Amino acid sequence: MTYYILFILGLGIGSFLNVVTMRYKEDGLVFGRHIVFGRSHCPNCKKVLKWYELIPVISFILQLGRCRSCKEKMSYQYPLIEIITALIFVSVPYYFFVYQKEMFVGISDNFLIEYSVIWVLVFLSLLTIGVIDYRKYIVPDELVVLIALLGIGWTILLFESNNFSAITGSFIGSYADLFNLRENLWINHLVGSILGLLAIGAIFFGTRGAAIGFGDVKLFGALGLLFGYPDIFLVFFLSFTTGAIFSLPLLVRKLKGMKDFVPFAPFIIIASFLVFFFGNDILRLYFDLFQFQL
Ligand SMILES: [Zn+2]
User: Fold this and answer.
1) Which of 132, 182, 198, 238 could connect to 271 by a Cys-Cys bridge, CB 3.0–4.6 Å?
2) Which of 2-16, 89-103, 161-175, 232-246 is predicted least confidently?
3) CA geometry: angle at 91 spanning 229 and 159, to 5°?
4) What is the pTM of this model?
């Protein structure tokens, strides 16, 4: 029952995220007045939308994906972002309470709720960054700062709830022990941020900003603070792997030439998502494949 309510709530918040990303301008604030308080209208005919044209997903389906007034096709971004947001609202608590329950044995339900709140906010921020980068090739600084603050909040919360997966606070579970982890969470998260910056900074300066933008570098520093060491390396590795898997067919089919710019933040975000949900499973698969015994 709770999950149904969270899903519906997510659809509504997703609708708001659509507004934020659609109205975002390069020189403006992500949460500026015109973004938060303006009335929604059709981007084509400018007609102000009625409440029944603004119901997440349902309006899109009933109107067969077209504006009621001018019949112009609506972007698939609208229902897609709404559904992804709803899935974030459902899957984050599911992760802590059900899917990776054994990693959080001994943590009270109240802490698990606080964990969920932090990570729902993380993924909402990341989703917004991803859409804005995809549309405008920009990673907004205020959202990067928000991720860094959530990283600090997360570290404080881990500290308070303490016995998180035997000291680590890592999403790769016991595999984190292989990486000479320090017992001090703050050191792990600071080191994660610095190493993340160094790794991505090397790519940025090595390619002279051809492969990735400086916004991606800043985002990585914030994610390092959030994920900590060693998880940030898995985020790093998976960002480039998913980026390559996606870009290769495009290059082969020549839809995009080598010089065309592919926004990188969406891959960082997919990688963050994979590490959070499946980091432990990915490493288990890796070590099973190579017959490595812990
Ligand atoms: Zn219209």
Assistant:
1) 238
2) 161-175
3) 40
4) 0.89
In the reported structure, the alpha carbon of residue 122 is separated from the centroid of ligand 1 by a whole-number distance in angstroms of: 33
Tens digits of residue pLDDT in 12-27: 999 999 988 888 877 6
How many CA atoms does the CB half-sphere of 30 hold within 13 Å? 21
End-to-end, the C-alpha distance of the chain in Å comes to 40
Whether the Cβ atoms of residue 281 and residue 103 lie closer than 8 Å to each other: no
In DSSP terms, 48 is beta-bridged to: 41
| Residue carrying the six token digits 């941020």 | 193
Cα gap 171→119, rounded to integer Å = 12
Span from the CA of 244 to the centroid of ligand 1 (angstroms): 38
* Residue 14 and residue 56 in contact, taking contact as beta carbons nearer than 8 Å: yes
Is residue 140 classed exposed, middle or buried when 0-12, 13-18 and 19+ CB atoms within 10 A define those classes?
Answer: buried
- Residue 102: pLDDT band by 50, 70, 90 thresholds? confident
Identify which of 213, 202, 196, 224 has the alpha carbon closest to the alpha carbon of residue 266: 213
Q: How far is the CA of 174 from the centre of ligand 1 (A)?
A: 54
Q: Are 132 and 138 in contact (CB under 8 A)?
A: yes
